[in-house]
Structures are given as C-alpha cells and as structure tokens.
C-alpha cells in the first residue's frame, strides 16, 4: 500500500477513531505491513475465519471471531 495508503479516506477515519479512543502506539517499526486474523480449527477443519486488513486500521468483528472459535471441534486422540 505504501504512500497511497495515506491518501485513503478510510485510513484517516480509522486513525481518528483510534486516536479518540485513547490509543497510543510507540510508532516504531515498518508501519507499512497490514495484518490479519485467522481462526484455524483442529485436524481437518481448516480455516474457520479469515480477516485480512485491506487498509490500515481495519478491525475484525469480535462476534465473528467468537462464533468461529465456538465451531472448533476438539481433535480425537
């Protein structure tokens, strides 16, 4: 995303949302790496949830993470 990420309206919305809620990071590191969340089930269940950041500040829905985690079935020994 590099510099084009800074001109996107959604990035600035996410920045101000985080700033208003009191988030303060250390601003160390690369800063251009987008993140993601995966919920992976046991055995052959595979990926139950995949969320990839499309722009800086995208947040995964907590209810969807909890719903996916509840679907994890213990693997038989």
From TrEMBL:
Localisation: Cytoplasm
Q: Which domain of life is it from?
A: Eukaryota
Matching InterPro entries, A to Z? PXL2A/B/C
The entry sums up its family as follows: Belongs to the peroxiredoxin-like PRXL2 family. PRXL2A subfamily.
Report if keyword Transit peptide is assigned. Answer: no
- UniProt GO cellular component terms: cytoplasm
Query: PANTHER family, alphabetically?
Result: PEROXIREDOXIN-LIKE 2A (PTHR28630:SF31), PTHR28630
Keywords (alphabetical) are: Antioxidant, Cytoplasm, Redox-active center
Q: Which GO terms describe its molecular function?
A: antioxidant activity
What is this protein's record name?
Answer: Peroxiredoxin-like 2A
Keyword Methyltransferase, does the record have it?
no
